[in-house]
Design brief:
- The chain is 46% helix and 19% strand.
- It folds into 2 domains: 2-188, Jelly Rolls; 193-296, Homeodomain-like (Arc Repressor Mutant, subunit A, Orthogonal Bundle).
- With 310 residues, the chain is α+β, with helices and mostly antiparallel strands.
- It comes from termite gut metagenome.
- One of its GO terms (molecular function) is sequence-specific DNA binding.
Amino acid sequence: MTTQSNPDQNIRYIVANERDMRWGLTVCSIGFQQIAPHDVYPPKGHPESYFFSPDKGRVLDEYQLIYITHGGGEFCSQSQKPIFVKEGSLVLLFPGEWHTYYPTEKTGWDEYFIGCKGNAMDQRVKEGFLSKSKPIFQIGIDDRLVYLYREAMKTSYEERTGFQQVLSGIANLLIGLTYSIDKATYFENKRVQHQIDKARVIMRENTGKEISPEAIAKQLNMSYSQFRKTFKEYTGFAPLQYIQELKLQQAKDLLRTTQYSIKEIASILNFDDVEYFFLFFKKKLNQTPTEYRNFSRGKMTDTIGNIFSI
């Protein structure tokens, strides 16, 4: 269904079949609305299941990402007290969660929105990536987001075979980009992004040397406890775990691309002995260094070929 009774509206309500739903994420609605100062909100033309009175609010059975690119207004939900949202705010609505929102009469607003549902979104909520208690993302005006909303609208109009899967990909990118921008903004405000970047450079430049997270924290003029907490919040890894992952990646690269012996690689990466390197590598990849080298160089080809020829 398309709503275009107003030239400043461009709205699509989209169907999904049973197979689409098994994809993990389907898009239900998408659109753009330009609400001028003193205009009635929401404008007429929406299906009954979407239309609402700002005084009474509503409950949807889908997630919606609403991006305000001009103007401002108010948002309130079952889990969020009334809050002013402005240009650059993205509001996330949750299924089954009462909410209401509207632009101020003085400014109106421009809004992009996309509605979706599926296990993929439910899982992100379950794992704590998205929360009803934090429905507002202050991400500023970002042309990448506007492009994605417009690309989704274009895809929905074309309705080529598999278009729901394309829309799902766009919705996923919108969600991921919003999460990333919001997280980066949080750390920029705390003035720690530069310190974390510097820490990662130190780690990369010293994978073959004896360097401890405590020593890195000292170089950054941070306490170790503060450094460890901030580093894990930013990267998802504890500092020592990140160093080990860098060692693993370099070990894999050396095994694939050089003729160094296993003993030499262990020495380059500053492992105390070859046996410890073997144990470290096997624990991470469930392969010994020798097995990984043989597999990465195609030396398993004959064995695999023999299996398929039986």
